[in-house]
Amino acid sequence: MAAVSGGPLASGVALTKLAKMVDGDDSADFPLEWALKDLDLAADAVGSNTAPLAATIADRWRRLVGLGFGRLDVSAARHGLQDTAPTSGRGEPSFVGANRG
């Protein structure tokens, strides 16, 4: 949080999402599946070769959506930074502080 606060990346949205990550709050303000849809629309418009970073992010998010994280907030994408998404021990995502609705 300290690395971003006060810098050029300190938008209200960025700070809000970062706070949700720090708090482990995956409740959806903007679901990950909607963010993935937007990345897919961008790739369709310009091509994945034009936006390779967006394509890489979309691949991670697609995996998380496939694991059941799609209705969590886009900040839940932090789970994709690990080798595997956290699970409850029963093979399903662990939704700490989240409404699976």
**Could you say which overall geometry the principal axes of the C-alpha atoms support?**
globular
Separate helix tally: 3
The mean pLDDT is 81
User: DSSP strand (E) fraction?
Assistant: under 5%
Radius of gyration (CA) equals: 14 Å
Order of helices and strands: HHH
Q: Describe the main β-sheet briefly.
A: none
Low-confidence stretches: 88-92, 95-101
Oligomeric description of these chains = single chain
- How far apart are the termini? 29 Å
- Level of helix content? 40-55%
The secondary structure category is: mainly alpha
What is the β-strand count?
Answer: 0
What are its keywords?
3 helices, disordered C terminus, globular, mainly alpha, 101 residues, single chain
Please describe what this structure looks like.
It is a single chain. This protein has 101 residues and is an all-alpha fold. The protein is built from three helices and no strands. The protein has helices at 12-23, 32-46, 52-69. The longest helix is centred in the middle third of the chain and has 18 residues, at 52-69. It is globular, with a radius of gyration of 14 Å. 18% of the residues are buried. Mean pLDDT is 81; it is low at 88-92 and 95-101.
Q: Summed up, what is this model?
A:
By secondary structure, the protein is mainly alpha-helical.
